Amino acid sequence: xxxxxxxxxxxxxxxxxxxxxxxxxxxxxxxxxxxxxxxxxxxxxxxxxxxxxxxxxxxxxxxxxxxxxxxxxxxxxxxxxxxxxxxxxxxxxxxxxxxxxxxxxxxxxxxxxxxxxxxxxxxxxxxxxxxxxxxxxxxxxxxxxxxxxxxxxxxxxxxxxxxxxxxxxxxxxxxxxxxxxxxxxxxxxxxxxxxxxxxxxxxxxxxxxxxxxxxxxxxxxxxxxxxxxxxxxxxxxxxxxxxxxxxxxxxxxxxxxxxxxxxxxxxxxxxxxxxxxxxxxxxxxxxxxxxxxxxxxxxxxxxxxxxxxxxxxxxxxxxxxxxxxxxxxxxxxxxxxxxxxxxxxxxxxxxx
Length: 352
Ligand SMILES: NC(=O)c1ccc[n+]([C@@H]2O[C@H](COP(=O)([O-])OP(=O)(O)OC[C@H]3O[C@@H](n4cnc5c(N)ncnc54)[C@H](O)[C@@H]3O)[C@@H](O)[C@H]2O)c1
Known about the structure:
The chain is an alpha/beta fold. It is built from 13 helices and twelve strands. A seven-stranded mixed sheet has the order 1-2-9-6-5-3-4. It has a three-stranded antiparallel sheet with strand order 10-11-12. Helix 3 links the parallel strand 5 (about 85-90) and strand 6 (about 110-115). The longest helix is centred in the middle third of the chain and has 21 residues, at about 200-220. It is globular and about 60 Å long. The mean pLDDT is about 95.
């Protein structure tokens, strides 16, 4: 089991990773808790550590990330007399931690939050970093807050039931950390594909631990995304988001960013920021993990107009310039200001 203790701005966060990480919930024995859990997850192992709690099964998936649904969850807290000293647990994938985190952040201006992610993507990305969000008017994450959980419990037990496709979607984010932040992680991924694909516990614990450290170090340096550091987490995401939007969100996020990383690495190489060989390393590692490299491999129709419009409306565009993180060599990156028209030109080439 690995434990990380980190302090971010005004909050202390403990992350516990491993089999039996749930045992850390013992410290909630004398607390009042609202356990919000995906109705697709068996909550019994979590409940066995709690005494004074209400349990609330909720839907998951993008449907759950709806402002009206979030308000229903807040109403449950209100009707059950929860106050700021009490605790909320979010048990589920990234959609659950996003919506429940959002509710926890607005309820009485913030109630204690514990994330228990149950997908690999949740463990390495969505549950960490304090961004919460719900969708509004068909735009993803347009309403949201920065709000840190006090504890994140990544218990490998939940990955036992997670389908292979969901593991691969999470691996796309793990590979991202390796490519732009962590050469050691890249090397570990390069050598341990069989173990990771067979859900070997030590290997999974290692990649979740390293990814968590990578994400926390970036978030610590730029918690509110104001210093141009947190953008590194967006590697592959600018073109990835365009693919998601162009496919009417039929292409899963992990696959979209996989293709996005290939396109953005090519762009970095063409404009002279990436060392020779980076594109080969990016495509090699993604193909090892059976992730798509091209739009054709996605088997989806991409509406170029919608994709380009998503780029124009990207939250990161300022005055016709997009700040992009380009890989320079494996495990390293550089912030580059790219004119939106240049980006659109590259993206169009890549998505055709
Ligand atoms: N807040 C952030 O910083 C951040 C970062 C990345 C992604 N996200 C958000 O995360 C969401 C995606 O997260 P996700 O991929 O976990 O999606 P998800 O919550 O929809 O879960 C994916 C699928 O896995 C199922 N599932 C969950 N846990 C399971 C388990 N243990 N066993 C079997 N099935 C299980 C779910 O029912 C669902 O069908 C998106 O909404 C995205 O915007 C947020």
